[in-house]
Design a protein that fits this description.
4-stranded antiparallel β-sheet, 7-stranded mixed β-sheet, alpha+beta, single chain, binds biotin, 5 helices
């Protein structure tokens, strides 16, 4: 599905380049990767730290030739994180890998605990039609230290495994992620939803939202999470969180 591949030494963001290439109309599916990003971005307007030649920065681009069901866009979100999750587990079975809602990949080992990968999905609409989707994946591989604002939550495979990964391993991860993404991206949301939900293991967990503690009641097939807040001085209240809102918890 992703036979058209582009690799660059430096880009602003692989999502930007994938979007630009798709808009030329020459390609329907493509994958863009780079050694370095000068304006790597994350969800919620965050910067994605993208130093040269240590990590994986890649974006899948899909130009939709037929009408996309809106729930299929949730498939792309889940496909991104499940692909990284599966690829890392396959190559390094000793690592404890988890997905944090909605699509962050975390790991814990005796050496470290934290976020190793994130997924940024950007859909382009013409009226109510989604005409293209870009799924950007950043995976921290050989990064040894992180900027002050994320140093307590970000980590890398190198820190977890206590050794540098060699070029062949990095390439293998990229190939495995691409194979898995190609497979997942073609699945209907009705198939993807249980896979994603089962790996999230959120039900019954205590999470924080807007500074308050909640218990997760359920993860819905709309991608939303239902939370119940129980406080001695307040009535218990149920609220619903969307994938673009933040939940704080340790996966
Ligand atoms: C997040 O967790 O906030 C999402 C991070 C996504 C980062 C990747 S790196 C490749 C692609 N290009 C970008 O600018 N962002 C995504």
């Amino acid at each position: 599905m992703f036979d058209t591949k582009f690799h660059y030494p430096t880009v602003t963001s692989t999502n930007d380049v994938a979007k630009e290439l798709l808009s030329s109309g020459q390609y329907t599916n493509l994958v863009v990767s780079a050694n370095e990003q000068t304006k790597g971005r994350g969800r919620s307007g965050n910067v994605w730290d993208s130093p040269v030649s240590v990590n994986l920065y890649m974006s899948f681009g899909l130009r939709h030739l037929s009408e996309q069901k809106l729930d299929h866009l949730l498939t792309y979100q889940a496909a991104g994180c499940l692909s990284v999750y599966g690829a890392v587990k396959e190559l390094f079975p000793s690592l404890d890998v988890k997905i944090k809602y909605p699509n962050d990949v975390y790991l814990s080992s005796k050496a470290t605990e934290g976020k190793i990968a994130g997924v940024l999905v950007e859909n382009e609409f013409s009226g109510s039609q989604c005409i293209s989707s870009i799924i950007g994946i950043g995976l921290n591989i050989n990064q040894g230290s992180f900027p002050a604002d994320i140093q307590n939550k970000a980590t890398s495979l190198k820190i977890a495994l206590e050794r540098e990964l060699v070029y062949e391993e990095i390439l293998k991860l990229q190939v495995l992620i691409t194979e898995r993404f190609s497979d997942y991206a073609q699945k209907k949301w009705v198939e993807m939803y249980p896979l994603w939900k089962n790996i999230l293991k959120l039900r019954g967990k205590t999470v924080q939202h807007d500074g308050k503690d909640y218990v997760v009641e359920d993860v819905l097939n709309t991608g939303q999470v239902v939370l119940t807040h129980q406080h001695p001085n307040e009535n218990s209240a149920t609220i619903t969180i969307s994938p673009n809102q933040s939940l704080t918890y340790v996966p």
